[in-house]
UniProtKB/TrEMBL annotation:
<protein>
    <submittedName>
        <fullName>Uncharacterized protein</fullName>
    </submittedName>
</protein>
<dbReference type="InterPro" id="IPR045249">
    <property type="entry name" value="HARBI1-like"/>
</dbReference>
Length: 202
């Protein structure tokens, strides 16, 4: 019995040695790909004259972007570690908005923001989850006559349209084709789901 155990141990060690010879271990060159750290986003974030980029790429101006960042910051903030500095909340929001506003691929977004593709995926998911947690604090319909009257007055002040609570519109959100894709194929020759939303003030 002891000889059998010794033989098994010897065989295992030989297999390990052979595996190391055939597939030698390659030491990891670095844990984090070196990146410059300051890219074009950090530049336009500080530059008051680059407003054209905001509306074009984020579907909002900088005065809207900054309050949004402040709202979600507690939900998406990450601490620095001994291995790397965390991505700032502003950059996290920008990455997620770039994806949501234009539907660009994560590979393209990663190149724009000088981060990894998987990082872009994670950041976008975390941002959407943060919005879902906070949505009840900011998006709600009038629940009684007084709130409805207030919403009508605010909407009329802003849009000069009387007796309207809000504006309704829709959009196509592109998706990966599901197993039964026919119901999701839209007039733009893409697979999408339709979102319809009402926007107003209360």
């Amino acid at each position: 019995m002891r000889r059998l155990q010794t033989l098994q141990t010897t065989t295992t060690l030989l297999l390990i040695v052979i595996a190391r010879v055939v597939n030698p271990r390659v030491d990891r060159e670095f844990w984090v790909i070196p990146r410059p750290g300051v890219g074009w986003f950090e530049v336009i974030l500080q530059d008051e004259h680059e407003s054209r980029y905001w509306k074009e790429h984020f579907r909002m101006q900088k005065p809207t972007f900054l309050p949004l960042m402040e709202i979600v910051q507690p939900e998406i903030y990450k601490r620095n570690t001994v291995f790397r500095d965390a991505i700032s909340p502003a950059k996290r929001v920008a990455i997620a908005l770039w994806r949501l506003a234009g539907g660009a691929s994560f590979r393209t977004i990663a190149t724009h923001f000088d981060v990894g593709k998987s990082t872009c995926v994670t950041i976008t998911k975390e941002f959407c989850k943060a919005l879902n947690r906070l949505v009840g604090n900011y998006i709600k319909f009038p629940s009684n006559r007084d709130e409805t009257a207030k919403a009508i007055a605010l909407f009329q002040d802003d849009c000069k349209i009387p007796q309207a609570v809000g504006a309704i519109d829709g959009m196509h959100i592109e998706i990966i084709a599901p197993d039964e894709p026919f119901d999701y194929f839209d007039r733009h020759h893409r697979y999408s789901v339709t979102m319809q939303a009402v926007v107003g003030k209360i």
